[in-house]
C-alpha cells in the first residue's frame, strides 16, 4: 500500500472522531506494510487531555507488540502532531511519520517547534507532510466551521 492509501485509512478514522464530537484526527501505525494499531482523537469522551489519536495508537501498538519501542514503523496521522505527540513519537522510536494537514499554529514537526530537527532529542524521525493535505484540512475546517 502507498502513503496515500494509508492516509485514506487515517481519514476514515478521523471521521469516527468527528462522529463522536471529537476534533477529527485519525492515526494508525504500520509495520511491514501491515496496520498494527489505529486510533482517533478521544480526549472529550475519555476525559483525558492526552487521548490524541497518536497517543491512542502508540499505547495500543505497545500492548500489541509488547514493547514500548516501536522501531521499524510508520505512523500516519491526518494532522501535523503537537508537542506532546512528537515527544511520545520520539520516545517510542517510530522510524517514520507521515501526516496530512499542516498545523502552522501548533504543529511540532516543522512549524511551531520543529521538533523533528531538535538536537536534544535522541531519536531522529524521518517525516513527510502534506499527504492528502487538502482532504485532511477540509475535514478539520468543516468540523470547526460547524461548531462556530
Which class do the helix and strand fractions yield?
alpha/beta
For the record, the CATH architecture stands as 3-Layer(aba) Sandwich
Number of helices: 5
Give the number of DSSP strands: 5
Strand content: 15-25%
EC number: 3.5.4.33
Protein name: tRNA-specific adenosine deaminase
Enzyme class: hydrolase
Subunit structure: Homodimer.
What does it look like?
The chain has helices spanning 3-19, 43-46, 53-65, 83-91, 133-147; strands at 26-31, 34-40, 74-79, 96-101, 126-128. It is α/β, with parallel strands linked by helices and 148 residues long. It has one domain (3-142): Cytidine Deaminase, domain 2. The longest helix is centred in the first third of the chain and has 17 residues, at 3-19. The mean pLDDT is 94.
Characteristic key phrases:
alpha/beta, Cytidine Deaminase, domain 2, 5 helices, 19% strand, APOBEC/CMP_deaminase_Zn-bd
Fold topology:
Layout: H1 3-19, E1 26-31, E2 34-40, H2 43-46, H3 53-65, E3 74-79, H4 83-91, E4 96-101, E5 126-128, H5 133-147
Parallel strand pairs: 3-4, 4-5
Antiparallel strand pairs: 1-2, 1-3
Helix pairs in contact: 1-5
Please provide a brief summary of the model.
With 148 residues, this protein is an alpha/beta fold. Helices cover 39% and strands 19% of the residues.
